[in-house]
Amino acid sequence: MLKFEVDGTAEGGGRRARLLLPHGAVETPVFMPVGTAASVKAVEQGVLETLGADAAGAQIILANTYHLYLRPGHELVRRMGGVHRFMSWNRPMLTDSGGFQVFSLSKLRKITPDGVEFRSHLDGSKHFFSPEHSMDVQIALGADVMMAFDECVETPATWERTRESMGLTHAWAQRSHDHFQAHKHEVPWFETFGGQTQSLFGIVQGGMYADLRKESAERLVEMDFPGYAIGGLAVGEPREVTREMIARTLEHLPKDKPRYVMGVGYPDEIEEYARMGVDMMDCVLPTRAGRHGLLFIRDEAGKVQRLNIKKLEFAEDQGPIDPGCTCPVCRRYSRAYLRHLYASGEPLSAVLNSIHNLAFYLDTMSRVRTELASAV
Fold it and tell me: What pTM, to 2 d.p., does this model score?
């Protein structure tokens, strides 16, 4: 159950709003760190709650339905009171449907109108996900927002193949919607929050075809979801195509409901999409890049740059990652030390690099929110 309050919309389409969820309010536009297995990799929950120049931390994070279904199992998480209690995170959460992870298992899956049969990437065991089962798993996990089960088409794909896949997504969206409505009161915290329930978002597909994106958006709007995601992007297409598909899809989504672009992107990309009118975004990039020694900084002109801490040129550099950053890593540690940690294979390297990158992303969205607030 959510409420979405829009304060105003800027000339370019970006808007300041807030998302009111059972576990708290979320100021938008917002970046959501990805906690795949109920853990944002290398960063503990207490740190996540304090990151950013305003020390407000991550307002909302993601967990992954596919991975938690396989390990430790959604019924175990249900018995623990839901994913919030399981991982000791009291702020809002969102779970994906598992559709993208199943899409990624192209050699281990078989798709039928009923659902997807796949083999676990962990042990090869056989499993089956239908829209109804995805809903059951996500209800057991108990995130504030959950996603309809969808199929993400490969890139490139023909118009015919994309439309066929989109039709499956629409059929599955209706089944997800109907099953959720019948079982939404089974969420583990239903009584704790006075009968509030989760909120189910639909996912717009349509590949790289504007006419299909329009058709998909209109079909999902007919189903009257409380929010809408734009899926199937950032899967190998050029950035300008991603931007076009987002822009063309936003035209057909309700202005009074939250709009979420899944799985994007670099800091300058999420800033651009927020100014276009996207309310929510997520990406594994901050922590994944950090684990590989790639750090985000801004140059003197304010442009986003990427710093490879592995380079020898930083071996005796006593400066911080980014002189303009106020994160705990930049306040305390030098580039030389961070390079040493990475070169030595120290686990602390992934921790510190990930903290900086997450703070960089959260600061980016905080700045955008401030600028939009003055423009609306």
Answer: 0.96
Query: What tokens does 117 get?
Result: 């049969």
Distance (Å, rounded) from C-alpha 376 to C-alpha 16?
8
Pick the closest to residue 316 from 331, 337, 330, 300 (CA basis): 337
Q: Is residue 183 part of a domain?
A: yes
Give the total number of structural domains in the chain.
1
pLDDT digits (tens, 9 = 90+) for 94-144: 999 887 777 677 777 888 999 998 888 889 899 999 999 999 999 999 999
Task: Report d(CA 310, CA 19) in Å as an integer.
Answer: 40
Tell me 314's DSSP state: G
Amino acid at 306: R
Opening angle at CA 278, ends 276 and 284, nearest 5: 120
**Residue 340: inside a domain, yes or no?**
no
Is residue 120 a part of any domain in this protein?
yes
Q: What is the DSSP string of 142-185?
A: T-SEEE----PPPSS--HHHHHHHHHHHHHHHHHHHHHHHHHGG
Q: Is 104 helix (H, G, I), strand (E, B) or coil?
A: helix
Classify 232 as helix, strand or coil: coil
Find the CATH number of the domain harbouring 232: 3.20.20.105
Distances (CA, A) of 214 to 211, 217, 246, 251, 368: 5, 5, 11, 8, 28
Residue 331: which of 351, 309, 307, 355 has the closest Cα?
355
Q: Please check whether residue 271 lies inside any domain of the structure.
A: yes
Query: Which residues are annotated as catalytic?
Result: 96, 282
- Give the residues of the chain that fall short of pLDDT 50: none
Query: Residue 339 phi/psi, 5° resolution?
Result: -65, -40
